[in-house]
Design a protein that fits this description.
globular; 24% strand; alpha+beta; two-stranded antiparallel ribbon; 31% helix; endopeptidase fold (from Nostoc punctiforme); NLP_P60_dom; six-stranded antiparallel beta sheet; single chain; 2 domains; hydrolase
């Protein structure tokens, strides 16, 4: 990451100090290089989103427990997401279905670390909200999210946004703006 920032900084310095006629634009070869570099920089909503995510990470391993939002006993999915955001003063719903009207809707392609992903329940054919998680990372277009699952991990864990979850995906919302 430091190398990327160093290269990006050097390219920007070159762009502004160039003696070429058009200082406002980089030569094509450098534009392509910058696009490649910027495409690999993780998207993050804000420093608040980073703090929210760091707090969420500290809860990895807390067991799954239906209808619970207490780290000493466990979390269900919405209890986990609600608990995390509430600790930063955000008013968020307690049930996964209510997240459909929470925050600001965002396209998945524009979603950032810290945004909330909303899914169906375990049956993707039943298009009814039943699960939520928080985007953990986005690198090279690959999304991972943190959530409390009743599945194999049976608790707070980080999961890839794989084909199974893509089939269950309903929408993304930004709580932290």
């Amino acid at each position: 990451m430091k190398k990327i920032l160093l290269i990006l900084s050097l390219l920007l310095i070159f762009a502004f100090n160039s003696k070429a006629q058009d200082n406002a634009s980089l030569p094509t070869q450098y534009q392509k290089m910058m696009e490649k570099i910027l495409g690999n920089v993780p998207k993050v909503a804000s420093s608040t989103a980073t703090q929210v995510l760091d707090f969420a990470k500290s809860l990895i391993g807390v067991p799954y427990r239906y209808a619970t939002s207490n780290p000493e006993k466990g979390f269900d999915c919405s209890g986990f997401v609600s608990y995390v955001f509430s600790n930063f003063g955000f008013k968020v719903p307690r049930s996964s279905s209510e997240f459909a009207s929470a925050g600001v809707p965002v396209k998945l392609a524009d979603a950032k670390v810290g945004d909330v992903l909303i899914f169906t329940g375990t049956n993707p054919r039943v298009r009814q909200i039943g699960h939520v998680g928080i985007i953990y990372s986005i690198e090279n277009g690959d999304i991972k999210f943190i959530h409390s699952t009743s599945g194999k991990a049976h608790g707070v864990t980080v999961t890839e946004f794989n084909d199974y979850y893509k089939s269950r995906f309903m929408k993304a919302v930004s709580i932290v703006e």
